[in-house]
Amino acid sequence: MLQKEEKIIVVLLVMAALSLVIGYLGFSEEIKTYSQDSKIGERVQVEGTVLSRQMTGKGDNLLLSISNLNIKVFVPKDNGAKEIYNSLKNGDRVRITGKVSEYKSAREIVVESSGDVIKS
After folding, report:
1. pLDDT in tens, 53-106
2. Measuring CA to CA, how many Å separate 94 from each of 13, 61, 109?
3. In angstroms, what CA-CA distances link 50 with 20, 26, 43, 87, 99?
4. pTM for the whole thing?
5. CATH topology for 32-119?
6. What phi-psi label fits residue 68: left (phi over 0), alpha (psi between -120 and 50 degrees) or beta?
7. 60 three-state secondary structure
8. pLDDT at 22
9. What is the mean pLDDT of the chain?
10. Which secondary structure element, helix H or strand E, spans residue 101, and what is its range?
11. CA pair distance 96, 2, nearest whole angstrom
């Protein structure tokens, strides 16, 4: 049988765990599907077919063109560009998560890690 102090510790640990779960569920960022109304800096998701994939001439970054999407997907070299390039081919169905950004007055979606590009 647990002593009084042990019971208090168990109750406190359960309360702490519940607080973490509630905090995670309550404050996790909602990821929306990309649209023309998406704001710069907003985290979005897109799904489609890879139409083209191209490594940039300078910097070893990756540019993807996805069907049904009128903007490019940009993967910086430090965020898994080569790994993603090697794992995808034209015609693959993908789900991509990234942040809306702007480069030379054109919108793009910037991928933050290789895990944000998933073959579906």
Report:
1. 999 988 789 999 999 888 899 999 999 999 999 999 999 999 999 999 999 999
2. 41, 18, 14
3. 38, 34, 20, 12, 18
4. 0.73
5. OB fold (Dihydrolipoamide Acetyltransferase, E2P) (2.40.50)
6. left
7. coil
8. 81
9. 90
10. strand 93-103
11. 50
Given the structure tokens 């995670």, which residue do they identify? 24
Residues 6+ apart with CB under 8 A from 111: 73, 74, 75, 76, 79, 80, 84, 96, 97, 98, 117
Can you read off the two tokens belonging to residue 52?
A: 């083209």
Which amino acid, residue 22?
I
State the amino acid at position 69 in one-letter form. Answer: L
Would you list the domain boundaries of the chain? 1-30, 32-119
Do the strands 93-103 and 43-55 form a parallel or antiparallel pair, or are they unpaired? antiparallel
DSSP string, 79-93: GTHHHHHHH--TT-E
